[in-house]
Amino acid sequence: MTSTVPALGTRTAEGSALQAVLLDMDGTLVDTEGFWWDVEVEVFASLGHTLDETWRHVVVGGPMTRSAGFLIEATGADITLAELTLLLNEGFEQRIGRALPLMPGAARLLAELYESEIPTALVSASHRRIIDRVLSVLGPHHFALSIAGDEVSRTKPFPDPYLLAAAGLGADPARCAVVEDTATGVAAAEAAGCRVVAVPSVAPIGPATGRTVVSSLEEVDLAFLRGLMTEMR
Predict the structure, then answer these.
(1) In whole numbers, what is the pLDDT of the chain averaged over residues?
(2) Contact, 72 vs 79, CB < 8 A?
(3) How far, in Å, CA of 180 to CA of 24, rounded?
């Protein structure tokens, strides 16, 4: 899947206030948040710099421009943002080429949403080249559309990606359930007015109004997501 333009007439779930499900990718569906950090550590080591482990919580879940820019400034590395972005994407692609583990419960949830004909979108801050590689493993048929971080003018933590996904599926953002693993992604989904399920991967995420925190996707199924909409009534 290389286009973010959805097919017309996407079906919504009859008899349910839930109109669509919008899913983050790294750390939510695929166990790759650690991959990004490992690649960042390796790239900066090749540049003669050691990354502080505490920086991991700063860069997790954010767009490449933010995380890479922060690391350049923090280390003083002699590299441009464009050069670093290329190295990080190449390193990540090599990693997922060797292994791409799914998060527990991800395959079952995707299959259930697909079989129930729930409009579903993949919404990620990762670049299109990365998303397409991951989609080949997840199965592009599970998603009516996908939104990449390098295809929007403002990506997470801004609401734009989730607003675009909801519009593409013909859904009211308030009737969309979003599943995210980072505070950055949660902020984006909540700013868009969506109901959020947080499944923290690297850093803790506290509960809040309109937000449900679970420990694993194994706790999330279609009945659970529909229940989030019922709570709004």
Answers:
(1) 89
(2) yes
(3) 5
- Which residue is associated with the tokens 């419960």? 105
Decide: 84 and 72 in contact? Cβ < 8 Å.
Answer: yes
Whether the CB-CB separation of 149 and 155 falls below 8 Å is answered with yes
Token pair for residue 182? Answer: 């980072």
Longest CA–CA span in the chain (Å) reads 58
Angle between helices 64-75 and 33-46 (to 10 degrees): 40
DSSP symbol at 174: G
Contact between 192 and 166 under an 8 Å Cβ cutoff? The reply is yes
* 195 token code pair: 């109901």
What's the pTM value of the predicted model, to 2 decimals? 0.80
Q: Is the pLDDT of residue 13 over 60?
A: no
Neighbours of 209 (CB within 10 A): 5
C-alpha dihedral (156, 220, 121, 26), degrees to nearest 10:
50
Distance (Å, whole) CA 180 – CA 224: 15
